[in-house]
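so im writing up the methods section and need the (S)-2-hydroxy-acid oxidase record in one place, dumping it here so i stop losing it
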Amino acid sequence: MASEPVNVSEFEALAKKALPKMYFDFYAGGAEDEYTLKDNEEAYQRITIRPRVLVDVSRIDTSTSILGYPISSPIMVAPSALHQLANPEGELATARASAASNTIMILSFSSSYNVEEVAASCDAVRFFQLYVYRGRHIAANLVERAERSGYKAIVLTVDCPRLGRREADIRNRMIVPKLKNVEGFVSNDVDAGGGSNLEAYANSTFDPTLSWKDVAWLKSITSLPILLKGILTHEDALKAVEVGAAGVIVSNHGARQLDYSPATITVVEEVVRAVKGKIPVIVDGGVRRGTDVFKALALGAQAVLYDPTQVGRPIIYGLAAKGEQGVKQVIQMLKDEFELTMALAGCTSLKDITRSHVRTDRDRF
Ligand code: FNR
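--- predicted struct ---
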């Protein structure tokens, strides 16, 4: 491999070299058989693109917005835990790279720098992802601090009443070291029972009673818009609209929770149809190429909104391989690929990307 990576998968290879096996496996792994982990990426590969030719593509505009905030392309930074395991600068580097790329980062609840530190690291729009612990006071405190330090939305992760069974972490006896921050998270003091201390920790702290009525509770403690992350069915998408969510994120948590949940790209249309353009629909899971971003937008294009995708692991691979610069390069690479895809498919702005630009197994022409 050339020393300069030219795509996300080469960044992954560099990250694998750079990281201790235990940490690489923590980032890369999924739940149980990792069926959904593979399918998240393979489902994109089963979709083909139907290009239109003889279109003037001398100017391409990849920009869009989410909740009214402009972003330079429909590629956002998904929340992921513990960036300091990848690089000492951790989320500070990720935040700076996201800001420089004119995109929005969703800071994980389980970040290794706290909300104020990340807010102070650079001036940019960012959202805060929330897990709800038993007792609720930690969640309430963090929501208040996120709002005070300028985060623009709360992303409530709803697919994690308990931690999925990530066998690589159990096998490796994944121990999260003491990092700089994290409100009580982390965890050398949790009895790992010979397995992963992350699992033992999460299962003793996450509140498994969290339910739809708690969205009202969350709304009562913040004036920020609330997005629900981890929606995979039209039934739950409708409920999200009903409880007043400002948006949904179609996600299976990067296949780290329920194995054999569907590849996210296969349920985007179902969710988009259910919400009928009332709220934005973001999708994540398995996006590794600009063509994947294009496919996700095409499948979501029945709605009036042209909603973004977000990437999890590619960001971490960039961070592990080359720090802040690596994150910037990964975002730029995906954006460049997406722009090229638009040009070759005959689309000059996001509104030109339609459902008829892609073909899935289910389509008949
Ligand atoms: C995650 N994800 C995640 N989601 C969340 O809501 N809170 C979190 O703290 C984390 N942490 C986390 C850690 C790691 C290492 C990974 C890989 C993922 C899920 C994440 O937001 C997103 O849904 C997936 O990463 C998207 O899939 P890809 O892009 O990684 O395939």
